[in-house]
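User:
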Amino acid sequence: MSDALAKLEARLAWERETMAYPDRVWPVKYTTTEGLPVLDVAVIGAGLAGLAVSVRLKRMGIENFTVLDENPAGFEGPWVTYARMHTLRTEKRLHGPDGGFPSATFRAWYEALNGAGAYEELGLIPKDQWMDYLRWVRKAFDVPVRNETRVLDVLPHEMGLQLEIQTPEGKQTIVARKVVSATGLVGAGGPRMPFDMSGIDPSKWKHSSEIFDFEQLRGKRVAVLGGNASALDNAATALDHGAASVAQYVRRPVHPERNNLRFLEFAGMFRSFPLMDDQQRLRVVRKNLETSVPPPLWSIERCEAFDNFRFHMATGWTGFEEAADGSLVITTTKGEKHEADFLIFGTGFESDLAKVDYLSSLRDDILLWSDVADLEDTSIDRAIGRHPYLGPNLECRGRTPEADRVLSNLILPNNASLVSVGPGYTGMNGCAFTSHRVVEGIVQALYLADADTYITQLEGFEHSEFTGQSNLTPVEA
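Assistant: Predicted structure:
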């Protein structure tokens, strides 16, 4: 560790101590009737959102929680797995996993390693360095992550929710009063696939979110469907790895230039969107969904730097088949036939809780936007209708009072919260605001559930300001 980084960590320790008041670890501790300890919170996902929530939980005096991630340590989230851009697409001043501590921001970490001048010269953050920063945040705050742990099922429990998990040691059961599904863009339904690929050799196609060896594309003809940033990043990566050619198919006649998110990125919107009425939220979300986010110019230029790259604008796919020689024959919306050896679907993600395996025991009772809003029969409104209708702190709502009691313990700071929470739902720009809202909701819910216990403890409280003697101890249920 460099001297500058050691000094930064000492400064962070000082900031945490300075801002620690009140520092009591306060939630009531419970055990199940079977003697299993009950967690206050179980966080699913140790990426950006999971870390941001975890750091704020600690700051609020909640230590009895765990974070579950199916990936190996240090490979959580997309940054060094399936993210194939060179740099982040958001500006370098973003923050969120720091919990509000200046010395835990990316800038502080980067300057400790490289000097203040280096940060001033930095344009966009290299994605590998961003991942290194997140690894440091996890270590600096001692976030309790259980890696290589997959959630199999989430079930109702009298104490909150019961999680069935697969660990390296085998299947286990844990119980938590609150469950936070911080699973990002991919975690609320998965990749959007416009075609049934069951009849196509799976070695000849991938979605852009999948992890695979691009070396297999050396010398191959690659076709990419989609015009978003991820689609272009995958096309460029194929070119970097020696693809014979890459053809990019984009339904739009031209790339969009206006990015509505640039307008929406301000504190008033981030903090207040969930408090708007339903019609106001629908107006914003419909406008966003009908206007595609443009890919960064440098992603386009990265591809166009290769002579063996070609855009097919205003051209989608209607189907494909395997030829006798093993090649794939694509039929386009123009009626043309094009051949390729490998297909990449850069078609984004969707929100559809029916596709989230571990919610199979709960999802039928989760209230959706289609249950409460007067939606039109359009592709945009059908997509909106599949989103859960969340409360102001991103908690699920139930279709019945009993279901609501159970499901209010399930919190979704992931792609599923787009319609309810707006631009701060899971993106990096809104991370600080969303994590604050989630943790504030957890703090309030845990306290109010046990308010009578705290009042009873107050009524029996003994303390001497003169001797310092006190009977204040953690409350055990």
